[in-house]
Amino acid sequence: MSHAAADHYRRRARRLRSLALRIEHSFAMQLDSFAGDDTWRGRRPGLCRTTLRSNQRQLHHAADQLRWQAFLFDRRADQLDAAAALAARF
What we know:
This protein has helices at 4-24, 45-89. By secondary structure, the chain is an all-alpha fold. Helix 1 (4-24) packs antiparallel against helix 2 (45-89). The longest helix has 45 residues, at 45-89. It is rod-shaped, with a radius of gyration of 21 Å. The two termini are 13 Å apart.
């Protein structure tokens, strides 16, 4: 027997994992491959590359956090289902 809230938690977990994948496969995550010395105008190409890589690390971290929250939602859903199954036995 599935608890109604468990289904909701699992749907949210799927959405979070989907969003994490979209972030990691976005064009922004490929920009560093176009960031050669000849790409930049001005005196600070190194600063631009460093900033870009820092921003990409932040996006990877955000995707990891989304996956962690999805894991927690799935775990909570499993707990709710287990409690519902136990309650149905009595």
